[in-house]
Structures are given as structure tokens and as C-alpha cells.
Amino acid sequence: MVHFKDDTMLLEAIGKFTQCLSQWNLNYNTMIENCNSYFIQCMNSFIKNDIKRVKDSRRNFHKNSEDVGTAFSRNAQVPKSKLGECEEAASNLVISRNNFKKASIDYLFEVNIIQYKKRTEVLNCLLSHLKGHQSFIVQTNSTFNDLNPYIQQISASLQTLQNEAASTRQQLRNESNTVLNLAMSSSVDDHRMSTSTSSQIDVYPNEECMEGYLYKRTTKTFKSWVRRWFIVDNNQLMYCSQHKSREGAVIMERDLRLCNVVPFQDTDRRFCFQIISPHRTHLLQADNEKDCQKWVAFIQETAKKAYNRMNSTPSCIKVGCISADLMASSCSPLRCVSTKSPPSATSNLLPKIPSHVKSILTISGNDVCCDCGHPDPRWASFNLGVTLCIECSGIHRSFGVHKSKVKSVTLDAWEPDQVRVMEQLGNDIARRIFELFVCEDGDVCMNDAGTKIVKATPNCSREVREEWVTAKYLKRSFVRRSNSQNHPTMPSTPQLKNAVKMNDGADAYGNDYWLNQDADDSEAASKLLCRAAEVGNLPGMLKALALGADVNFKNTEDSDKTPLIYSLTTGLNAPVEFMLLNGSKVDVPDADKKTPLHHAAILGNAGQICLLLKRKANQHLKDINGNDALSIAVENADANVVTILRLARLNEEMKGSDGGFDNPSDDMFAEVFKDFSAIPSSSVDGASSTRSSICTLSSTTTTFQ
Ligand SMILES: [Zn+2]
């Protein structure tokens, strides 16, 4: 019924026919019931009364027959001498014979009666049975007679409908034959196939959008493939499960400019291609080689067009005046309801700009790309503390995360300590370090070996850009003169220590001092790194790294302390985060076998402990006195540090007990870290709020124990 809810004719017919057949069914059941009960009644009375009477008379007949036999015997046995007995026996014999005659006649009578009655009773039963059927048929007939006009009407309609269906079928058959012929002929001719209707790919006339089915490999682990409808539109790649239903389409890649598309041969499947994005790699499969080439070419072309469009559009980010475009891009929803909605719709929402976006983009020099000067940097290398355009960020990414950690300023999440690192560096400082000895001659510079290198510009080719960025950061060609001279003399360590003490933790020298430092070899650079780390001067630390400092250097003149250990003494998070971002190993101990975690525990700095634990610092390591970080904190009665270390242990144990999957304590642990890193370690207010959050923490942990 549900399937015909809009078809009134069919619904009416079903209703009437159902009613009629129900009536028929009811009559039939009543008739059968009546017939059965009457038949049983007749038979019961016949068996119980009539047959019983016959049986009784037969029994009587047999009894009298025996009695006559007995009377004959007695009569025969009487001795001649006893005359009295002879007479008695003779009279008994006469009585018995009379009784026997009577019983015989009775029996015969009953048998005859039953013979007649048998016929009438059976006939009677049959007749009433037939009458029952007859009345049922009459009733049914009248029911169907009532329905007859309607049946005729439906029959006529049915004929019309059948004729219509036949003609439609013929029409469809003709159409499908035409399509089939077209498809068959076009598959012979490759050229025509691209325009044929059988092609599974739709390219829209303006060539801004392409859609079609592709197989998508779900995960690397299970390697199963699913067929999805893919759409390339508006410089984005998305897919949905159903053909042409963009409702709920999943965006696979938000910005195809960041992606590299290449045919992929290293698989058992044919017609595969790979989309390599900054964060993931997608493996897709087309239906045939031609489609595969088409997809690869189209995506490459889309990315190129989008890139050119971006270059021709004037910059929309100005320092201090963040454009609506930026806001839209920083808050665009993950799920795309309709990609055709006008861009102004999102801009009108006027979302709140994340505070980190403003603080990163307003740092001196960060309004243009650090490497090519493109005026629209939305990417950043957060271990180098610079902002980058999308093209330069791609080159940084190709270095690997151990050299340059790249993420989007607007689209990615930023941790407070990462923002603090960015805030203390910036493009101006980075250029003073990495482009210090650029000998400018137009756009051509010389590296330290005297080779000419063309400086990257916003619109330069990828080759030029790659060579420039590689020379600048990887080869560090412009950091020092080949024959360095006239650099300011470095103060010795004791001098510096005094200066630090006098200024109560503040950097006594300022950025200019540190940026003018030089080091002839790696050891000197490493010592420079230690000194800059000790006062927490990030420009100085970056300069030392550029000069070739070893991030895990052990200062043998000062108990094998590492730059990371020095950075802890500042009491600040940013220098520690900077060292960790730039590859400091988290557990390297000093001569007393004290790890950075030991030092942080001694200093009682909860924020720094969180940073180290986040990098999976091992808190079970013991120093030369056999103490681990927790026992030091317990000895110091440092409630904050004890709580955090215990919480981390609890987290480890819970991970160990359930295999580390879906551990709810992980989220809580991350929240705690967030609490601590959100508090500026140097702020006075920070101390009290740290204490209050520790109170809530302690109550949380007690519920676990
Ligand atoms: Zn750039």
C-alpha cells in the first residue's frame, strides 16, 4: 500500500477487491462450519440410537438361540422312568422355542429397519451438505454481481494501461539501443569516447569542475577500496557516496595548490594515481587509463590556475587589517553543504579571528613571505619562527619536519608555546640571520662558495625558489662570510652569568648583541647556543643553530649540560619549546645523570615539565643519587609538579593496561597540559591560577586512585 500511496485508482481497486474477497472468505468458512456440525450431529444420532438397537436385538437373538439349545438337551436327557420331569422338560422346550421365534423376528425387523434408515440418513446428510454449498454459491454470486460493474471498469482501464506500457517499453528499447550503438561505436574510436555519453566523467563547459567515479583506498592498514563520486571544484577535491549528490560531500583536500598529483605504478591495481598533500597521501583509481590521465591532468591544471589566480589577485592581508577573506578561510566548515553557495555567505558570518593569527601576522616582517617577499603569507615554519607563502612553504615541507615544521597560520591549531616562539622570532630576525651575507647584485646573489644564486621572488619558477630556499636554510650559504672577520668579541661565560644575575633572569644583551655573534666552528656555535639558551634569547639561539650548533651539545666545561638544560633555567616555556622543536633529545642527561626533567623538577616549573612530558620524557630515569624526578619533587614538597608527574604515571599505566587504544585518560592528560601551557610561565598571575588548576587536578586524580 505504501508503494501506491499516490495512485488513487489502484488504492480503490485494492480496497474493493479486498472487501469482496474477505466477504467470500467469511461465507465459505461459515458454510464449512455449518456443514460439518450438521453431518456430525446426524452420524452421532445414527450410531448412538439406531445401530445400538440392532446390536441389542442381535444379543437377545443369540441368547434365546442358546436357551433353545439348552432346552433341547435337557428334554433329551430326561429318563423315561420320571414322567413328571418329562412333562416339565417338554413344556420348557415349548416356551424356549416361542421366545426364540420372537427374538428372531425382532432381530430381523431391526436389521431391515436399519437397512432402510441407512439410505435415508446418508442421503439426508449429503443433501444438507449440498444445500449449504448451494446457499454459499448464491451468496458469493450476489457479492460478485454487485462488484461486476466495477470489475468491468477496471478491466477496461487495465487494457488502456497495458497498451501504454507496451508503447513506452518499445520507446525505451529504441532509446537504449541507440545509446548502446553509440557506446559500442565510440569505444572503438578513442577520440570519440571522450565526448560520448557513456563516459563516467563529467567535465563542465567552463572546465572549472570535474566529476566522476573513482576507487579510493580507505586506509593503509586494511587496503580496501571503495567506489565514490569525486568532485574537483573550486580548487578543492571532495567525494560523496552517491552520484551527483553533493549533500554531505566530504572534502578530501581543501586546497589543491598544496597537492602534488602523480600517476602511481607501485601497486597491483591499474589506472592508479596519487594525490600527495602536506598531511596525507591519497591513492585513487580510475576506470581506465584515459580517465586516469584525464583526472591527473585536470587536477594539475586546476592547481596551476588557482595558483596563477592567487598571484594576479592583489594581497588581501594587510598587517593590522585582517581581511574578510582571511576570516572565511580560517573558519570555513569541514563539511561542505553546497559548494555553489556564494563566497559572501561565509564572509557575512564575520567569525572571530583566532588571536594567534593576529599575533603571528603582526610581528615585524611577517606581512610578507620570509623567502620570496610574497605579500600574502599564510603559512609558517614554527621551529624557524617565520611566515611563508604557499609556494615557499612547499619547499620547506620537502626538507622534512626535522629541518622545518610547516603549518597553516589560519587553518591549523596552534599551541600557546608555539605562538610564543613565533612572537620572539619573525621574518626580520630570520633574514638578519639567514641572509646576513647576501651580496646583492640585482636579483643575483653569491653564496659562500662564490656560486651565483638567484634570489626568489613572488612569481619566480619553482626551480629558482627551491635553489634559493635550500641555499638559505639547508646549506646556510649566507650566514657567515667565508673568511669571517671583525665580529664583536664574545664575553666569557662568567661575565655572562654575572650579567644574567644582575638582571634577574632577563636577557642582559638584547637581540642586536646576539645577532652580531659569530662562531668559527660547530663547538663555538654550540657554546653560543648554550649561552643564548641560558638567557632564553630565541634570536640568539636561532643564530647559533644557523652557525652550525649541535642541539644536543654537552658542555664539558659545565657538567655536560645541554642547551635544553640551559633553556630550563630561564623559567620560561618558549626557549624550552624552541629547543624541543629544533630537535633537542628530551632525555639527554648531564654529568650528574640529571635529565632535563630532573632539572625542571628541581626548578619546580610545572609548565616546563608539561612540555617535556608531552615529548614523552622518561620520568623513571634516576640521577647519580638514585632520585627520579618525582622523588625530587616530593622532597621539595612541590604539589604542582608532584601532581603532574603522578598524573603522567597514571596515564602511562592506563595505557599499558588497555593496550593504549582509546584511552580516556589521554584526553584528560592533554587538557591538563593545555591548562599549564596556556599560563604564561613568567606572569605573576600565572602562579596563582596554576595553583587553582592544580587543586581541581588533585581532586580529579583522587577519583582515579
Ligand atoms: Zn614565498
UniProtKB/TrEMBL annotation:
<keyword id="KW-0479">Metal-binding</keyword>
<dbReference type="InterPro" id="IPR011993">
    <property type="entry name" value="PH-like_dom_sf"/>
</dbReference>
<feature type="coiled-coil region">
    <location>
        <begin position="151"/>
        <end position="178"/>
    </location>
</feature>
<keyword id="KW-0863">Zinc-finger</keyword>
<dbReference type="InterPro" id="IPR001849">
    <property type="entry name" value="PH_domain"/>
</dbReference>
<dbReference type="InterPro" id="IPR037278">
    <property type="entry name" value="ARFGAP/RecO"/>
</dbReference>
<feature type="repeat" description="ANK">
    <location>
        <begin position="592"/>
        <end position="624"/>
    </location>
</feature>
<feature type="domain" description="Arf-GAP">
    <location>
        <begin position="354"/>
        <end position="486"/>
    </location>
</feature>
<dbReference type="GO" id="GO:0005737">
    <property type="term" value="C:cytoplasm"/>
</dbReference>
<dbReference type="InterPro" id="IPR036770">
    <property type="entry name" value="Ankyrin_rpt-contain_sf"/>
</dbReference>
<keyword id="KW-0175">Coiled coil</keyword>
<feature type="domain" description="PH">
    <location>
        <begin position="207"/>
        <end position="304"/>
    </location>
</feature>
<dbReference type="GO" id="GO:0008270">
    <property type="term" value="F:zinc ion binding"/>
</dbReference>
<dbReference type="Pfam" id="PF16746">
    <property type="entry name" value="BAR_3"/>
</dbReference>
<dbReference type="GO" id="GO:0005096">
    <property type="term" value="F:GTPase activator activity"/>
</dbReference>
<dbReference type="Pfam" id="PF00169">
    <property type="entry name" value="PH"/>
</dbReference>
<dbReference type="InterPro" id="IPR004148">
    <property type="entry name" value="BAR_dom"/>
</dbReference>
<protein>
    <recommendedName>
        <fullName>Arf-GAP with coiled-coil, ANK repeat and PH domain-containing protein 2</fullName>
    </recommendedName>
</protein>
<dbReference type="InterPro" id="IPR038508">
    <property type="entry name" value="ArfGAP_dom_sf"/>
</dbReference>
<dbReference type="InterPro" id="IPR002110">
    <property type="entry name" value="Ankyrin_rpt"/>
</dbReference>
<dbReference type="Pfam" id="PF01412">
    <property type="entry name" value="ArfGap"/>
</dbReference>
<keyword id="KW-0862">Zinc</keyword>
<dbReference type="Pfam" id="PF12796">
    <property type="entry name" value="Ank_2"/>
</dbReference>
<keyword id="KW-0040">ANK repeat</keyword>
<dbReference type="InterPro" id="IPR045258">
    <property type="entry name" value="ACAP1/2/3-like"/>
</dbReference>
<dbReference type="InterPro" id="IPR001164">
    <property type="entry name" value="ArfGAP_dom"/>
</dbReference>
<dbReference type="InterPro" id="IPR027267">
    <property type="entry name" value="AH/BAR_dom_sf"/>
</dbReference>
